[in-house]
Amino acid sequence: DAKTTQPPSMDCAEGRAANLPCNHSTISGNEYVYWYRQIHSQGPQYIIHGLKNNETNEMASLIITEDRKSSTLILPHATLRDTAVYYCIVRVAFAQGGSEKLVFGKGMKLTVNP
Amino acid sequence: DSGVTQTPKHLITATGQRVTLRCSPRSGDLSVYWYQQSLDQGLQFLIQYYNGEERAKGNILERFSAQQFPDLHSELNLSSLELGDSALYFCASSVSVQDSNYGYTFGSGTRLTVV
């Protein structure tokens, strides 16, 4: 899996958009960008993933640069419950029976302040 | 509720003992992954099973073993426990027969404390 670089921490005001950056300059053409988060000691939670195009779901938006060397996860209206460690991971697509494990780095601690 | 069930939620045991952690994957998911999370190590991949067969191995100690049963539930066995084995142990499952490509679904974990 390609390595990703995230800042160790970030603060955001409640109600504002949180823009979480991730650099993945060595990403391969068949590798997706996945975002997970871990709230306190709960199990990590899938947020969103994308290959080339920008993606949006009910939780967040994912903006991937045209050269795919970096991406930004956007939480449009951050709440206190969004305080968590966010992991940016690049890897090949999951395939039934595949052995490609998900490798978590240190992630980035997002603190949403009231 | 993520659909991945882990039991027990908490476990306290003494050094030298053996414990078994159980995981039931989300309905339809054939792969089960085990991760260990200790305070200073982050999330470490231990082992993966797919449809009953071991598929990938990570930094799993020889004192640890796992298996996946025909009903697809999995058990992680930890033996000769040491204080350093105290950690959160997460199970995740992935890839339904519909091949959703949505990655892993994690359980809520088992907190193991070795005293």
Explained architecture:
The complex is a heterodimer of chains A (114) and B (115). Chain A has 114 residues and is an all-beta fold. Helices cover 0% and strands 46% of the residues of chain A. Chain B is built from no helices and eleven strands. Chain B has strands at residues 5-7, 10-13, 19-24, 31-38, 42-50, 53-57, 64-68, 74-78, 87-94, 104-106, 110-114. In chain B, strands 2, 4, 5, 6, 9, 10 and 11 form a seven-stranded mixed β-sheet that branches. Chain B has a four-stranded antiparallel β-sheet with strand order 1-3-8-7, with no helix packed on it. Chains A and B meet through strand 3 and strand 4 of A and strand 4, strand 5, strand 9 and strand 10 of B.
Summarize, please.
The complex is a heterodimer of chains A (114) and B (115). Chain A has strands at residues 9-13, 18-23, 31-38, 45-50, 55-56, 61-64, 70-75, 84-92, 108-113.
Topology:
The complex is a heterodimer of chains A (114) and B (115).
Chain A: E1 9-13, E2 18-23, E3 31-38, E4 45-50, E5 55-56, E6 61-64, E7 70-75, E8 84-92, E9 108-113
Parallel strand pairs in A: 1-9
Antiparallel strand pairs in A: 2-7, 3-4, 3-8, 5-6, 6-7, 8-9
Chain B: E1 5-7, E2 10-13, E3 19-24, E4 31-38, E5 42-50, E6 53-57, E7 64-68, E8 74-78, E9 87-94, E10 104-106, E11 110-114
Parallel strand pairs in B: 2-11
Antiparallel strand pairs in B: 1-3, 3-8, 4-5, 4-9, 5-6, 7-8, 9-10, 9-11
